[in-house]
Design a protein that fits this description.
The protein is an alpha/beta fold. It folds into two domains: about 90 residues, Translation factors (Elongation Factor Tu (Ef-tu), domain 3, Beta Barrel); about 150 residues, Nucleotide-binding domain of ferredoxin-NADP reductase (FNR) module (Rossmann fold, 3-Layer(aba) Sandwich). It is built from six helices and 16 strands. Strand 5 and strand 6 form a beta hairpin.
Length: about 270
Amino acid sequence: MYQVKARVLSNEKVGEAHYRMKLEVSQIAKDARPGQFVHIRCSSDHDPLLRRPFSIHKCAQGRIDILYQVVGGGTRILSKKRRGDQLDLLGPLGKGFEVEPAFSKIFIVSGGIGVAPLYMVAQEITRLGQGKEVTALLGAKNKELILGKDDWESLGLRVMIATEDGSEGYQGLVSALFERLILSQTSLSLAVYSCGPVPMLRKIAELSSHGGFFCQVSLEQRMGCGLGACLGCVIRGTSGYLRVCKEGPVFDAQEILWDDPDLEIR
């Protein structure tokens, strides 16, 4: 883990309230693994007081990208940053995805801004598993909220879209599309990687458990320190309490008690 000053290379609006920020930060870029995150101080003063966690979306050549949605004061401040500005970062933090070349078929399932930590998973899978059958399912309320479709297609994956209003691809929830695609799947050599709203993840976990598939999910949770000390991001798991910033943010789907009221995705 490093605490560094990262230089903003760009901060591009890519959707209705979504931005992609590129940061020059060679130490973190060198060590980051798919699914890990950085903890960013959004302002140089004390408002907001706490850092904000952001999944590492891309990582290459001494830089990282974060993909974020403006939802409050911290992200609103972040959206105003310009090229040359500096941000105080901690990272890379947390436990990432276990990407192995052992699976013959892989599904990557994202809902909304949940796409953010999954792109690096896809990059690593394609690097390790040439010839694998990999399907990326991208879900959102409408086609304007589908993020990074061209990037996913450039990896050579099979990309399928689900929109709730039917404006592009399958009409309905991305979890329903996933269910349709795996109905005939019986192979235990199948892996699922997912991030998105809790109801979606709950359904993905249920379907994967029923099929006997390997399934990992990335959770978003309010955090204080990001280092496991403050216990502000604790959820309940099958083995006891779990800190999302330390034991996660990536978990085996069966580790989580999905009826825990403390689960929250924003």
